[in-house]
Amino acid sequence: MADRHRRKGCRVYLSTVASPVTAAPAGPRRRRLALVSGNVVALGAVSLITDVSAEMVTAVLPLYLVLGLHVSPLAYGVIDGVHTGATAVLRLAGGFVADRTRARKPVAGFGYALSAAAKLGLLLAGRSVPAITAVVAVDRLGKGVRTAPRDALITASSPPEALGRAFGVHRAMDATGAFLGPLVALAVLAASGESYDAVFVSSFCVAVLALVVLVLFVRERPAGAPDTVAPPGAPKVTAAEAFGLLRAAPVRRLAAAAVLLGLATIGDGFVYLMLQRREDLGLVWFPLLAVGTSLAYLLLAAPLGALADRVGRLPVVLGGYAALGLVYCLPFGPLGGWPLLVLTLALHGLFYAATDGVLVALAGPVLPARLRTTGIALIQTGQALAYLASSVLFGLAWQVWGPRTAGLAAALGVAVVVAATPALLRKRGSLR
């Protein structure tokens, strides 16, 4: 992810950290900016299919646990916390192994295979809550392993000036899978007489299809790619180099900003619970709130990625967090009914579209090519752990103060973070 803020807006200089990224192959500039590479599309297809599989399980898991197994709210909270935080555990390990072996595709493939196997693990876990918790952790560990190598492959497959568009297209395809997953799960439940096992088996089959697409269509080093991991014969990445990333001030500031932004984010489930309490939504409608967020996300991801290439990544990211602050406020305002649901879910999807891939694109110029996967994993790990902490703190605030005070406090926290992040990154002209 190289100098992407080339013209207007904010621009993070990496001159003190990263080597320059090789220019894209010759060809009309307009064509380079208009399209994304086939490798990005293939990775997007893998993510789309994988998200169909993952969201099939995610959509029915609360119903399966609470109504099917009658677990307590506390037990469900523990499982949900594992589902949220376990991705952070192996992100750094997966990123480092991918950089050291210079084999990002196999490492990503291992992560996808791990998550696929976990779908069958739900069948073997039966009605054991500890076993289900362990299986959910394995599924999320697979996601943690694959995320940084996948994003590094996207970076290696895209010209520097089009990274926002590349990540936007990928995240739009990813969100399409998240949108379709709950609908497929509901269809399987209807066709199988509400058999959760049928959902788990179907989810496994879909996950295997994603692995097949990865093996057949994703390339480790696309022809003409603007990024080179390392020249032949170059020494392997060492642990000392990986730990040394944080000694570079630009990397350190961006990692701190990622943690700060993570602290401003609470779990999606809390947003949906606030809407459910406000509108007294029935159980059947509750899973469809996530579908609404995913629909907005998939519609906005590519346009906002392209916008980030034009005006700068940081303004788009901060705009997404401003939308998130409104999401936390709206359930306690005067608006109600369908207008409240539509506006809140649209802003929630806008938040993800403006921040998910764009934040990774923002990190690219700060990271040297041979440590790019590790660096992406470092930033994502910091944000994921901060996100986990913020969700726990928000749950505590909800219990002590009630949802209204907790929601408004979260919105205030977002405002503070949006104001503080540019000040954190704007040092010695590193942002323009």
Q: What is the total tally of β strands? A: 0
Strand percentage lies at: under 5%
At CATH level 3, the topology is Growth Hormone, Chain: A
Counting helices, strands and paired strands, the structural category is mainly alpha
The helix content is over 70%
Number of helices: 16
Topology pattern, helix = H, strand = E:
HHHHHHHHHHHHHHHH
Instruction: Please name the CATH architecture.
Output: Up-down Bundle
Average pLDDT taken over every residue: 77
CATH first level:
Mainly Alpha
Let me know the largest β-sheet.
none
Radius of gyration, Cα only, in angstroms? 21 Å
Q: Give the overall form.
A: globular
Count of the domains: 1
CATH homologous superfamily annotation: MFS general substrate transporter like domains
Give the termini separation. Answer: 17 Å
Q: What ranges have pLDDT less than 50 throughout 5 or more consecutive residues?
A: 1-34, 428-432
